[in-house]
From TrEMBL:
<dbReference type="InterPro" id="IPR055344">
    <property type="entry name" value="SecD_SecF_C_bact"/>
</dbReference>
<keyword id="KW-0653">Protein transport</keyword>
<keyword id="KW-0811">Translocation</keyword>
<keyword id="KW-0812">Transmembrane</keyword>
<comment type="subunit">
    <text>Forms a complex with SecF. Part of the essential Sec protein translocation apparatus which comprises SecA, SecYEG and auxiliary proteins SecDF-YajC and YidC.</text>
</comment>
<dbReference type="InterPro" id="IPR054384">
    <property type="entry name" value="SecDF_P1_head"/>
</dbReference>
<keyword id="KW-0813">Transport</keyword>
<dbReference type="InterPro" id="IPR022646">
    <property type="entry name" value="SecD/SecF_CS"/>
</dbReference>
<comment type="function">
    <text>Part of the Sec protein translocase complex. Interacts with the SecYEG preprotein conducting channel. SecDF uses the proton motive force (PMF) to complete protein translocation after the ATP-dependent function of SecA.</text>
</comment>
<dbReference type="InterPro" id="IPR022813">
    <property type="entry name" value="SecD/SecF_arch_bac"/>
</dbReference>
<comment type="similarity">
    <text>Belongs to the SecD/SecF family. SecD subfamily.</text>
</comment>
<feature type="transmembrane region" description="Helical">
    <location>
        <begin position="497"/>
        <end position="525"/>
    </location>
</feature>
<feature type="domain" description="SecDF P1 head subdomain">
    <location>
        <begin position="239"/>
        <end position="352"/>
    </location>
</feature>
<keyword id="KW-1003">Cell membrane</keyword>
<protein>
    <recommendedName>
        <fullName>Protein translocase subunit SecD</fullName>
    </recommendedName>
</protein>
<keyword id="KW-1133">Transmembrane helix</keyword>
<feature type="domain" description="Protein export membrane protein SecD/SecF C-terminal">
    <location>
        <begin position="356"/>
        <end position="524"/>
    </location>
</feature>
Amino acid sequence: MLYFSRWKATAILLGTLLVCLFAVPNFLPDSVVDKWPKWAQRHVVLGLDLQGGSHILLEVDSNAVRREKVENLRDDVRRALRDAKIGYTGLTARGDAVEVRVREIADVPQALTKLRELSQPLGGILGGSGQRSVDVADQGNGVIRLTVTQAAMTERIRQSVEQSIQIIERRVNELGTVEPSIQRQGVDRILVQVPGLQDPSRLKDLLGKTAKLTFRLVDMNNSAADAAQTGRVPPDDELLYEGRGGQRTPILVEKRIMVSGEDLTDAQPGFDNRTSEPIVSFRFNTTGARRFAQTTQENVGRPFAIVLDNEVISAPVIREPILGGSGQISGNFTVESANDLAILLRAGALPAPLTIVEERTVGAGLGQDSIEKGKIAAYVGSGLVVVYILATYGMLGLFANIAVAVNVAMIFGILSLLNATLTLPGIAGIVLTVGMAVDANVLIYERMREEARSGRSAINAIDAGFARALATILDANITTLIAAVVLFFLGSGPVRGFALTLIIGIFTTVFTAFTLSRLIVAFWVRMTRPAAVPI
């Protein structure tokens, strides 16, 4: 057990040194690290509880998801009946259902067949139980009722939350923040934690906007002012407003969407060459470019409203066809608002509005206080362990302390390599790992002491101590590893931070206690040839 070939010893030392080197950037100024290659600029990211930042809990508007689901079903019913050339009337949405009356009773069987095609089996586990997305029922007298099932609603809400998490992550990353934590909580809530962001107002503005962008034509045949005064809006129009604050101008825009923001491929802030005002330049994909070109060709001279979240940003007049698939949005932007709008458009529109349920701001001072207390706890705990091991095991205790120090360095090296986020519970995990590493060495040394008492020679006792302690060390660490893995996959936030450092610490502990310590002891034995075990 104490024999190491030259190549094996070299591999152990070089591997240990390489992992420890990844921890070096954490202890150097950013001005020095920034000059290094990108692959070497890895460091541990401090969590929200250590460097402060913003904590926001968002809730997806489930009612809006339900309304959208029913509206989409109504549009599907309209399209299906029109494609089948079946006359209908009274197409209305009520609650979670859509009702339609077929004009000719003789057409009801054909209408039922066509509308049942809209009901799809739900995928995944639910699909095996035979549940479908829509229940279609004949109410008599030509009335057909289509009801969105509860299972379909639940699945749609789940999809909306998952899609929202992806969009929120893109929006937050565009801010240039480091390692935001975005995770689902419960059925319809999303937790956003952004370390280092002390002013959450801009973050709330970005997260609170649905960012649903549409391009629609302005109705020039009806008066928007009259519609605003009387409340009578033409059935094919929608009354929206342009401008903010007290100067809001009513505009009648057509409900029909000519081009959707979903067809955008890029959006960038910039400045107008003529007026030097901030603008947002955008570019469409192939489908969007074709629709945009066709719309501008057919409507030269008409105002074209750019609508974001039911608010008209601007309504410029189409002077000439725009065939290049790109354009720009202007509307009294500031530099920051233009940049924020570009971020929103690049990230995409949320599937449903989000409301802020809870918000907290953790001050940098509180985070620094946590760091200082964590350092004190780590220093005191480690110091006591070092003194105890030295006093109990002498020279071998010194070897154990070296292995423990390397163990901690390797933990920070691996965390840096992963760009992991270190939280206060994570520091607790590292401190716990120190105790576990010492415990592994204690098992080995006590085995050595027992072997020496039984009459073995010093070298044989040392060799047997490592050999016979291995099974006990592995058993103890594997059981802890199982618990840590369960914590990591089932826990959230700080719990996962604790579990991550503990998992890494278990692997480094086994390596340093059984491999690195054994190598150090082997070197010492080879040089000194001890006559007795120095314990």
